[in-house]
From TrEMBL:
One of its GO terms (biological process) is phosphatidylglycerol acyl-chain remodeling. The keyword Transmembrane helix applies. Keywords: Endoplasmic reticulum, Lipid biosynthesis, Lipid metabolism, Membrane, Mitochondrion, Phospholipid biosynthesis, Phospholipid metabolism, Transmembrane, Transmembrane helix. Transmembrane segments: none annotated. It is a single-pass membrane protein. It is found in: Endoplasmic reticulum; Mitochondrion membrane. It comes from the Eukaryota. The keyword RNA-binding does not apply. GO terms for cellular component: endoplasmic reticulum membrane; extracellular matrix; mitochondria-associated endoplasmic reticulum membrane contact site; mitochondrial outer membrane. Belongs to the SERAC1 family. InterPro entries: AB_hydrolase_fold, ARM-like, ARM-type_fold, SERAC1. This is Protein SERAC1.
């Protein structure tokens, strides 16, 4: 304003002043012009400088406040990578140019196809190479299932991103995407955030006491005898343990079973095991799963899991509970939010077959995007445990026998070499589960399932004294679980050891009586029996003769040669198998088996292992090793592999 007034005054002076000599007038006009121009330039410069400074001040933010807000939302900023390979050299520039070209192609195709790409990202200011992250995130939420699966696959194959880019995905992805990444073999561990902090324990409380309170909060009515037994046992033993800790004494009141059988264990760990056993049974009931979740069970189990990383039995039971809870889809979001997915993703990569398989079962139950089947307690997929593009054309089921297990029964035959060294060896040389390591590699188009159920030689050592499960009862129970897992929808082979073969026979006979099970019968291509006592076992006779010492269990009693149920099962199945033209392969041991340090017994003789149809092959091993090949080139494995390939030849070709 002052500048304008000054200019006007100068102009008036020039117009009203008396005429001067021509030379004086000329220089005066030049001086006035210089003053006017200089004043104009100086004033304009000051004005522009003032406006720029004012604008900068108005746009400057408090960086500390911004950083605090970022931390509140867990937003990761672009930081310098610790990886020396990720530098800003030629490789970085080439990658950046490549991303820029890809983005231009995507943008062009979006315009041509009228895709919503431009609307979502045209106003976002970001580096060109960062656009792929947000594109994949958007794609992972697409309404098209194929697009979502492709997005997860591309994320899992990304190994060149910066650390913060993985963290962006980890925070922004939804439940389906996170579960898919956990079930993708090549996923980077940075996709999984650490579990949220666990709530502190109550004052003057312990994990053992909170486990007891959780168990006591569950409904105690309308339970079967075994659930009631485990619950009452866990509650009574935990009360005795708490009293012992406070009084400085060891209590052996009540049944005293957990302490009497585990003098070398820490009492609290023993009580925790009994509480977890009871929770496993409760978690099989959907309404009880809701109670476990509502009472903070997911966080308590996570605390216990982290505390007992060196105790496989405790971790196994925790995984069983979690896998059972994952059968209820309305609990999936709670399980994911509690941070369990990152723990499961880490466990999936474990070298220990049991830990990896339990984690695989839980994640498969969480993954409703690619898995329609539900895997109940005791049903474990050995292959494929990850998402795969390999089409699955047939199933192979492994059923263990008396005192067996889903994993240890099918390990390679033990040698004098230290087992701890074997774990880290090449699986082609030694494997803790040959169906997972060898068979899956030789026949990748198979889904391989192993089943686990509880058995005992004696009622003295039974886990649940209230439980008397016959072969007929177990077969119906396993049949129900296997149908829930989709067994019977594809061509299939049964592989069984010892008493497991009797269960297979009973399951097939029971399925033949139910019209809804016709697919399971029609899709059965063959059966492999490893030393199955079709006509009884010497073990049963021996146990009966010294029953005052062994107290033989119901399972053992049913293996005696004079058992009517066993004879009826053999006669009915033989007629049924001949009618259905099942392919059958049987192996039998020729060497006796040591039971303990003093008892030497030929468990299944040659005549008992003869089903009456199919090939019967004697092998110079004992009863325990009849299903454990020495090497991958051993006759036992190669003959088994040949039978599976021949029986499924047409199905695998199609």
């Amino acid at each position: 304003m002052s500048l304008a007034v000054y200019c006007v005054i100068c102009c008036r002076r020039m117009g009203t002043s008396t005429p001067l000599p021509k030379s004086h007038t000329y220089w005066r006009e030049i001086r006035n012009l210089i003053k006017f121009t200089g004043s104009l330039i100086l004033g304009g410069s000051l004005f522009i400088t003032y406006e720029v400074l004012a604008l900068k001040k108005s746009l400057t933010l408090d960086t500390q406040v911004v950083e605090r807000e970022k931390m509140k939302s867990y937003i990761y900023v672009h930081t310098v990578s610790l990886d020396k390979r990720e530098n800003h050299g030629i490789t970085y520039q080439a990658r950046k140019e490549l991303h820029k070209a890809v983005r231009k192609v995507l943008a062009t195709s979006a315009k041509v196809l009228r895709s919503p790409f431009a609307d979502a990202f045209s106003t976002v200011e970001m580096e060109d190479h960062e656009c792929a992250v947000w594109l994949l995130l958007r794609k992972s939420r697409s309404g098209d299932r194929a697009a979502r699966l492709q997005a997860v696959q591309e994320m899992s194959e990304a190994h060149h991103w910066h650390d913060y880019q993985y963290r962006i995905i980890a925070q922004a992805c939804d439940l389906r995407t996170l579960t898919g990444l956990a079930r993708s073999k090549e996923s980077d561990p940075r996709f999984f955030l650490r579990p949220p902090p666990l709530p502190p324990l109550k004052e003057d409380s312990s994990i053992e006491e909170e486990l007891r309170q959780l168990l006591a909060s569950l409904p105690q009515t309308e339970l079967d005898a075994c659930i009631q037994y485990f619950t009452s046992l866990a509650l009574s033993e935990s009360s005795q343990s708490l009293a012992a800790q406070k009084g400085g004494l060891w209590c052996f009141g009540g049944n005293g079973l957990p302490y009497a059988e585990s003098f070398g264990e820490v009492p609290s760990a023993t009580v925790e095991m009994f509480c977890l056993e009871a929770l496993v049974k409760h978690s099989e009931i959907p309404t009880h799963c809701d109670k476990i979740e509502a009472n903070g069970g997911l966080q308590l189990l996570q605390r216990l899991y982290q505390l007992h990383k060196d105790c496989p039995n405790i971790q196994r039971n925790i995984m069983r509970i979690l896998g059972n809870m994952a059968l209820n889809e309305h609990l999936h979001s709670t399980i994911v939010r509690s941070g369990w997915v990152s723990i499961l993703a880490e466990a999936m990569k474990s070298q220990h077959i049991m830990e990896a398989s339990h984690a695989a079962r839980t994640l498969a139950n969480l993954d409703r995007e690619t898995v329609q089947d539900k895997y109940q307690d005791g049903v474990y997929v050995l292959h494929p445990q990850y998402r795969t593009s390999q089409p699955i054309k047939a199933d192979v089921l492994f059923i263990h026998g008396l005192m067996g297990a889903a994993f240890k029964t099918w390990r390679q035959q033990d040698s004098d070499q230290d087992l701890t060294e074997k774990v880290s060896e090449d699986e082609t040389k030694y494997t803790t589960c040959w169906p997972k390591s060898w068979l899956a590699r030789d026949c990748p188009a198979l889904r391989i399932i192993s089943v686990e159920y509880d058995t005992s030689l004696s009622d003295w050592r039974t886990r649940c004294p209230m439980e008397r499960k016959s072969i007929a009862f177990r077969s119906n129970e396993l049949l129900r679980k296997l149908r829930a897992a989709g067994v019977g929808d594809r061509p299939m082979i049964w592989v069984s050891h010892s008493m497991g073969g009797l269960l297979v026979k009973k399951m097939l006979l029971e399925a033949s009586k139910k019209p809804e099970m016709n697919t399971l019968i029609n899709n059965t291509r063959g059966i492999i029996f490893y030393s199955v006592p079709h006509h009884g076992s010497h073990l049963a006779e021996y146990s009966v003769n010294i029953r005052y010492l062994l107290f033989p269990s119901l399972e053992v009693k049913e293996l005696s040669k004079d058992c009517p149920a066993l004879k009826t099962l053999q006669d009915d199945f033989l007629e049924f198998a001949k009618d259905k033209h099942f392919q059958v392969l049987s192996f039998v041991e020729t060497l006796p088996t040591y039971i303990g340090s003093m008892i030497k017994l030929h468990v299944v003789p040659l005549e008992s292992a003869d089903l009456g149809i199919g090939d019967l092959i004697p092998v110079d091993v004992n009863h325990l090793n009849i299903c454990k090949p020495k090497t991958k080139d051993a006759f036992l494995y190669q003959r088994t592999l040949q039978f599976i390939r021949d029986a499924l030849a047409e199905d695998l070709e199609n």
